[in-house]
Design brief:
The complex is a heterodimer of chains A (402) and B (390). Chain A is α+β, with helices and mostly antiparallel strands and 402 residues long. Chain A is 42% helix and 13% strand. Chain A folds into three domains: 7-94, Butyryl-Coa Dehydrogenase, subunit A, domain 1; 129-242, Butyryl-CoA Dehydrogenase, subunit A, domain 2 (Beta Barrel); 252-388, Butyryl-CoA Dehydrogenase, subunit A, domain 3 (Up-down Bundle), CATH 1.20.140. Chain A has a four-stranded mixed beta sheet. Chain A has a four-stranded antiparallel beta sheet with strand order 2-3-7-6, with no helix packed on it. In chain A, strand 2 and strand 3 form a beta hairpin. Chain B is built from eleven helices and ten strands. In chain B, strand 9 (268-269) and strand 10 (272-273) form a beta hairpin. In chain B, helix 4 (69-82) packs across helix 7 (231-266), helix 7 (231-266) runs antiparallel to helix 8 and helix 9 (318-344) packs antiparallel against helix 10. Classes of the chains: A alpha+beta (402), B alpha+beta (390).
Chain lengths: 402, 390
């Protein structure tokens, strides 16, 4: 076991830090600490420009192989990049879905033509992506997708009909990757296709969802005879589930340390407030702050274990990776409650009308999504028990058809 | 950065696990815990003579193997898993650490040599009976008398104190308080005025004693570290011991989890293995989460402890890493033990099944060297009080 980074990596760290210090200035200064989870609606245009600024500096897609336009950074360097990015308070990335999900999916499963068509725009920060997985009837049961894709022989295109939900950044995005049913008679994981759909077309309608925070990061996306070119399906019709899930097993969580830096910023705010308003003298609050601090430290150690773990050849997650989502999501939700309890009665007083939340208030409300999206805590526990501990699946109670 | 065991460390761990599976079976644990000494002397001699575990992190110059704290923690995890009854924790993780941290060359050479040779067991006595486990828990006193020191006072919670041949004791100058005036001494158990009495314990697999000093006189050569300024060294020893204890707790968590998964997979009710019920699976998932998170905390703390003696970059993190690990692992162990007992159902309540051994160990070790609340309060002081006007 060795915890320190190599001298070469530390050199890389200072390179990242000084680039951010030099460039996160002027028109971009106001973006500091903005645009993260719960705040994604702020400064979208400015953050698009920032994305291109990053690209000019060569700081997009740092983990991608060089042949695809990436920086080819090692795991350690990727960790360092995301840490320094968060440490500098650089804004939430509008390009993260393209960089983290769409691009890697295309690199793994796409055709040469698809790679040439789509990857450069992601690397350049000029083309943004959103994700079309969840539907009103396909939440925890994600395979229960109802959106249909029919190949129109005369037009030579795929035609999509259906509804997606919880699509973040849909308004800002140029493309959406969508799983839709290519075989109308299929059920569950079979008969799905993975499509690359252009957002700017008549058959696509976006409606923002007004959330608990009063803001709208998430959207509903309606496909009403939306078109998709014949060559814009990844893999064969029927392979959609495999493509959609393929990357999850290989995701080693390099961005998690950056996420933790954001958590640290939030905890720092809470500690500063507690010291200021006297909550730091309340024994129960002291315990909860110390617990939050201790567990955030361990979250970092756990991520380091995940990143150092010997690669598992079948792509399945190691135990420390299996528990990670449940751990951080539950921790973050408790942090939100702690923030309000440190504020005391001030927690109810807004920054302004009509519904201007402070950063901690917004956090308290937004963290409720953490234990729901990306696999609820309950689904996570099923996954841990079944894949991590080998416990049997629960027999399914099947609804009667018809 | 590589935060994973090396192949060599994995081998040490696996060898320990295989050996303990053989020698520390449920029957062996139950036989040893029923004795007053609390361990099988023949097995201890095998551990010292064949496995050389007592010497694992002691430098080669003093007769040890010269490995590090990561290896020690890997071993402790396995001992916790198999509930090994032995004076290992008291001798190696408490007394040997005190010698390593505070001893001069002469003291290290003599006493560590004897410990490595398996000729001596030792322990640490400092707490007069307080839940704080901090400097204020030291109530025994010393005074200088010519070339000798005269010690008076009493200690509780002295692990293996009734069988140890050597005590490392902490005492304070008469009239001193807090972290001031504390000295450490090496006190052979046969010194006149030293009595130790076995305290029967709920967790029978680890023995405790009360030690009383009545005008115990020792030569000034037995002073361990600087006189009156012993607290920083003792504090470091306690941090190191807490990390080792936390590793033992992780091992206990893992064993409970494995036992519970196996049992619930076999136990059939309503014509199904109860492991197929989500109500059961979700508890098991939470147990695994706590176990893995605890493990991450301990492995990190072990890396910090490894660097601590060399004063490396991480050395300054020792108190925090120890409190993070001890607080999380203590709470995790008891929570996992409680859930395990619940999932075993009625048989978990019996003496016959092993769950109660771990359940009792979990509660006892939670309070040994400071419980979760105590260690969190220590973190809170650093976070919330330093530099703040109250």
């Amino acid at each position: 076991m060795k915890l320190s980074f190599s001298a070469q990596d530390e050199q890389f760290r200072s390179e990242v830090a000084s680039w951010l210090e030099d460039n996160l200035t002027g028109e971009f200064a106001k973006l500091k600490y903005r645009g993260g989870p719960g705040d994604e609606h702020t400064y979208p245009e400015e953050r698009k420009v920032w994305e291109q600024k990053l690209a000019e500096g060569g700081w997009t897609c740092v983990g991608w192989p060089k042949e695809h336009g990436g920086k080819g950074c090692s795991i350690e360097q990727q960790v360092i990049f995301f840490e320094e990015y968060a440490r500098a308070g650089a804004p939430g990335r509008v390009g993260h879905i393209g960089e983290g999900l769409a691009g890697p999916t295309l690199i793994a499963f796409g055709t040469e033509a698809q790679k040439q068509k789509y990857l450069p725009g992601i690397v350049a920060g000029t083309e943004l992506w959103c994700q079309g997985y969840s539907e009103p009837g396909a939440g925890s049961d994600l395979a229960n997708v109802k959106t249909k894709a029919r190949f129109d022989e005369t037009g030579g295109k795929w035609v999509l009909n259906g509804q997606k939900v919880w699509t973040s950044l849909a308004h800002e995005s140029d493309y959406c990757f969508v799983i839709a049913r290519t075989d109308p008679d299929s059920v569950a994981h079979k008969g799905l296709g993975f499509f690359l759909v252009k957002m700017d077309q008549p058959g696509v309608e976006i409606r923002p969802i007004e959330q608990i925070t009063g803001t709208s990061e998430f959207n509903e996306v309606f496909f009403d005879d939306a078109h998709c070119d014949a060559e814009d399906i990844v893999g064969a019709p029927g392979d959609g589930w495999k493509v959609a899930m393929g990357l999850l097993g290989f995701e080693r969580g390099v961005s998690t340390l950056g996420q933790q830096m954001q958590f640290q910023n939030e905890l720092d705010d809470i500690v500063a407030l507690a010291r200021e308003n006297g909550a730091a003298d309340v024994p129960r609050i002291r315990q909860r702050i110390a617990r939050a601090h201790a567990e955030l430290k361990i979250m970092r150690y756990n991520a380091m274990r995940m990143l150092s773990g010997h690669s598992v050849s079948d792509g399945s997650l190691q135990k420390e990776a299996l528990i990670y989502k449940l751990f951080w999501a539950s921790w973050h939700r408790e942090l939100g409650e702690l923030a309000m309890d440190v504020m005391g009665p001030e927690c109810d007083i807004l920054e302004g009308a009509p519904y201007e939340l402070s950063r901690l208030q917004a956090m308290f409300l937004f963290v409720r999504s953490d234990t729901i999206y990306g696999g609820t805590n309950q689904i996570q526990r099923n996954i841990i028990a079944e894949r991590g501990l080998g416990m049997p699946k629960e027999p399914r109670a099947v609804l009667k058809q018809g | 950065m590589d935060f994973a065991f090396t192949q060599e460390q994995e081998m040490i761990r696996d060898t320990a696990a295989a050996f303990l599976a053989e020698v520390s079976s449920s029957e062996a644990v139950r036989a040893a815990m029923a004795t007053e000494s609390g361990y099988d002397e023949a097995l201890w001699q095998r551990i010292c003579g064949e496995m050389y575990w007592q010497a694992i992190h002691i430098p080669e110059a003093h007769g040890g193997l010269g490995l590090g704290y990561v290896e020690l923690v890997a071993m402790m995890e396995q001992m916790g898993r198999y509930l090994l009854c032995s004076p290992y924790f008291s001798t190696v993780c408490m007394a040997a650490n005190a010698l390593l941290v505070a001893g001069n060359e002469e003291q290290k050479s003599k006493w560590l040599g004897e410990l490595c040779a398996g000729q001596l067991t030792a322990t640490l006595a400092f707490n007069g009976g307080s839940r704080s486990w901090a400097a204020d828990s030291i109530t025994a006193s010393f005074r200088r008398d010519g070339d000798e020191y005269v010690l008076n006072g009493s200690y509780r919670y002295v692990i293996d104190g009734h069988t140890a041949g050597l005590f490392v004791v902490a005492a304070r100058e008469e009239g001193s308080s807090g972290e001031q005036g504390i000295s450490l001494f090496l006190l052979p158990a046969d010194t006149a005025g030293v009595t130790s009495e076995w305290l029967p314990t709920m967790d029978q697999a680890r023995k405790q004693a009360a030690v009383t000093l009545e005008n115990a006189r020792i030569d000034s050569a037995n002073l361990l570290g600087p006189s009156g300024e012993g607290w920083p060294a003792l504090s470091r020893v306690l941090d190191l011991a807490a990390i080792a204890l936390a590793a033992e707790q992780v091992g206990g968590c893992q064993q409970l989890l494995d036992m519970t998964v196996e049992y619930t997979g076999e136990r059939v009710q309503f014509n199904r293995p109860i492991a197929s019920f989500q109500a059961v699976k979700h508890k098991a998932a939470d147990m695994m989460l706590k176990t893995e998170v605890a493990r991450s905390a301990v492995y990190y703390a072990a890396c910090v402890a490894q660097e601590a003696p060399q004063g490396g970059e991480l050395a300054a993190e020792l108190p925090e890493a120890a409190s993070v690990a001890k607080s999380y692992c203590s709470d995790a162990y008891f929570a996992v033990a409680g859930e395990s007992l619940q999932l075993f159902g009625g048989v978990g309540f019996t003496w016959e099944y092993d769950v109660h051994l771990y359940f009792k160990r979990a509660k006892a070790s939670e309070h040994l060297l400071g419980d979760g609340n105590t260690h969190r309060e220590r973190l809170a002081v650093a976070l919330l009080d330093e530099g703040r006007q109250s």
